[in-house]
Write a structure and sequence with these properties.
By secondary structure, this protein is mostly beta strands. The protein has one domain: Jelly Rolls, CATH 2.60.120. The chain contains 1 helix and 14 strands, in the order βββαβββββββββββ. The protein binds 2-acetamido-2-deoxy-beta-D-glucopyranose (NAG) (2 copies).
């Protein structure tokens, strides 16, 4: 089954992504170079071991958030072999990672969600370098047939949450969307997209968007329940969840002067 990925995006953030569909062979493609200053780099060094993702000294991400109580990132992340590599990954020293969720993925007693979301180290909730100017978040997604998402549910996969946790400036989502964003619009967001390892192409104009409120990026899975009006605290998920999504080429670059790596 092919994931139908929906964009519900908002942000002076631009988005970039490459999506690989399951079950289609692809030619090997060379890794592309990044062109702009890197603000946050979420491309793990190949030498990192799972336990390194629990340690502030070694993880590219915040080891403490946003995940099920008592579950360390070393148990949540998987490191599958992916070929060809994502467009901006150099497999000689960088590797992709898979974020997984199961029935224990309950953060902060939010019993309606199953979630595991990575935040970049240095992406502080206030005064973050990722929340000002023009920024582009890059990510490449791959479906895991062993841990498929259930697209009858709504998922958040890449997003930016305001510092007061009251809203998200943009969401990259999958599955059946429960509601629509109705944020005010006064700034811009632009989306670039490609399949496989092809160069990214702009697929939107600069869209009006409300990027106010600072906050942080999150990369991973937030699975919403069905059958409730209180998605945070209640609702239905099937039992024995075993779901995951593979990420590569995750980084945020500075788009000052119109710079973007394609
Ligand atoms: C969920 O996965 C974590 C990490 O592998 C594991 O420790 C936990 O027991 C799992 N929970 C369930 C309910 O399977
Ligand atoms: C997928 O989710 C729907 C809605 O919660 C549920 O009815 C269905 O049983 C789930 N599918 C699987 C394979 O668990």
């Amino acid at each position: 089954m092919h994931p139908s990925l929906l964009l519900g995006l908002l942000a002076g953030t631009a988005l970039a992504g490459t999506i690989r569909r399951p079950g289609r062979p692809r030619p090997q493609a060379p890794t592309a170079e990044t062109l702009c200053p890197i603000v946050f780099d979420g491309r793990p060094d190949s030498s990192l071991e799972p336990l390194d993702f629990d340690d502030w000294n070694t993880s590219p991400f915040n080891p403490d958030y946003v995940k099920g109580a008592g579950l360390p990132w070393s148990s949540i992340l998987q490191f599958p072999d992916i070929s060809p590599p994502a467009r901006f990954d150099d497999p000689t020293y960088q590797k992709p990672f898979e974020v997984t969720i199961n029935d224990s993925s309950i953060f902060n007693n939010q019993r309606g969600f199953r979630r595991a979301g990575l935040q970049f180290q240095g992406d502080t909730n206030r005064d973050s370098p990722g929340s000002s100017g023009i920024k582009t978040i890059h990510f490449s997604l791959k479906w895991d047939a062993q841990r498929p998402l259930n697209l009858s549910h709504e998922y958040l996969n890449v997003w930016h949450e305001t510092a007061d946790y009251s809203a998200n400036q943009f969401n990259f989502q999958a599955g059946a969307i429960l509601g629509q964003n109705s944020l005010a619009r006064d700034t811009t967001l632009r989306v670039y997209y490609s399949r496989g390892s092809e160069p990214l192409r702009s697929v939107t104009n600069a869209l009006t968007n409300n990027n106010a409120g600072e906050g942080q990026y999150q990369v991973g899975i937030l699975r919403k329940p069905t059958g409730t009006s209180d998605v945070v605290n209640s609702g239905y998920h099937q039992r024995n969840l075993n779901e995951g999504l593979i990420y590569g080429s995750v980084f945020v670059e500075d788009g000052e002067g119109g710079c973007v790596s394609l």
